[in-house]
C-alpha cells in the first residue's frame, strides 16, 4: 500500500460487519442453490444483454444492459420499474456499459469505451461522472466516499485504487509490479469485512489474498496452469483464455470464484474457498455466466440465456 | 468490420470467375431469402411479395451483412450506423435488409435456443440503434464467407441487372452511389 495501508481496514470495517464465523476453522461444505427470481426471457424485452448487476438493501435490482445501452431497475418481483440511458457519451449515456455497484443511495457504473464512473441515484437520475482515465476491471463501493476499483495497466502495473466521491485517490495498491504484458494484470477483486483484499487474475492462474497493509498473505493456483494461451493480434501478444471470470464473498467471508475455460464446466463452476484459500466446495450453475454477484442478503445473481436472463438464487449451506 | 477494402464496388457481372461465383452466391441467397429459408425471415421487405409495389420492385435493394459478435463491439459497427443514419426511414424500411451472421455452435443451438436468443437480442439492439430495416439470421450460414471477406453490403439493381459488393467504411463515392440507387 503506497499511501495509507490502513485505509482498507478502516473503510471496510466501517461499512461491513465482521461475522464471528470467519474465525472458525472451515470444513468442506455442501452448497446448493435455489432459484428465487428470474428476470428476462426469450419472448420478452426486459433484458437483452446484461453486463453489470447490483442490488440495494430494499431488494431492488439494478442492471446495466449492453445491447440497449441502458440502466434498468427491477423490483423484488422482477418487474421493470424504470429504465434510463441511451447510446452516447454524454451524461447518463452509455456506449458499452460494464460494471455496476451501489451504495445506500447511489449507483456507480462503468463503460468500456467511456472514461470515468457514471453516478446515478436510485431513481436512475444521472448525478455526475467521476473522472478516471484507466480501464476498470472491477468496482465496488463501501460508501459514497469510499469507492474501490481495480485498474488495469500496461505498461503500468495493475492497481487497486480507493477514491472518494470526487475521484480523489485516497490510497492505492500496486499489486503486480512486474510488466506481465497487456491484459495480464486484469483482476477481479473483493474486500472482506476485515479489510482483506482478494484478487483473481482473469488471465493468469492466480488467486491472492492481501492484508490491509498491502502485504500478500497467500497466492494460489487452482487450475494447475503454467502459462496461459497467447495469441498475437496485430502488434500485441494477448491472452486468449479467461482463467477466472469473477470473484465475490458471501456473508461468511467465503470466496466464490467463477472459473473460465479450464473448469470441468467452463463458466458454470464456482469454486468456494475459505479465507485461507482452501477449497471447500464447487457449485455448478445450470447455465454459463460471465460474472457472479452476492448481495447483502446473501443472494447469488448470475446470468442465463447468454445474457438475456438474470437469475437470483438463494445459497443453501448443508 | 475492417477498413480493409475488398471488392469495393466491383461490378460482379463482368468480373470473371470470382465475379460469377459471387453472383451465383448472391442469386442463391436471394432465392433462399425469398423462399423463407432464413431464420426469422418474413415475406415482407425488399424484393418480397408483400413488401413493395410492382413499380418499385424493379429498383435497387441493399443487404447489409454483419456479424453477431460485432454487436458487442461498439466501434466495430460505427461505420454501419453512420451509413444507416444517412438513409431516409422509408428507404431503410423498404429497401434494406440486415443479414446477421453468427457462428454455428451445434451444442448451443441443438434445440434452436441460440438462434432464439440472438433474435431477442437483435430486437433490443435494433430498437436502441434506431435501425428500421428487417434483420434476419443467416441460419444456413451461407453468408459466412462474405463476412470473412469483409463484404458488408450487397447492392442489387434489378434494372441494371447488377450486384455490387462493398466493404465498410464506405468511400464517399460508394456511399453516394448506394444512396442514389436506393433512392431512385
Provide a short characterization of the protein structure.
The complex is a heterodimer of chains A (318) and B (184). Helix content of chain A is 3%, strand content 46%. By secondary structure, chain A is mainly beta.
Characterize the structure shown.
The complex is a heterodimer of chains A (318) and B (184). Chain A has 318 residues and is mostly beta strands. Helices cover 3% and strands 46% of the residues of chain A. Chain A is built from one helix and 26 strands. The relative contact order of chain B is 0.24. Chain B has a six-stranded mixed β-sheet, with helices on both faces. At the A-B interface, loops of A face helix 4 of B.
At the first level of CATH, what is the class of chain A? Answer: Mainly Beta
What is the correct CATH architecture of chain B?
Answer: 3-Layer(aba) Sandwich
Tell me the radius of gyration of chain B. 15 Å
- Quaternary form: heterodimer
- Describe the sheet with the most strands of chain B: 6 strands, mixed
Helix percentage range of chain A: under 10%
Provide the CATH topology of chain A. Neuraminidase
What value does the Rg of chain A take, in angstroms? 18 Å
Give me the CATH fold name of chain B.
Glutaredoxin
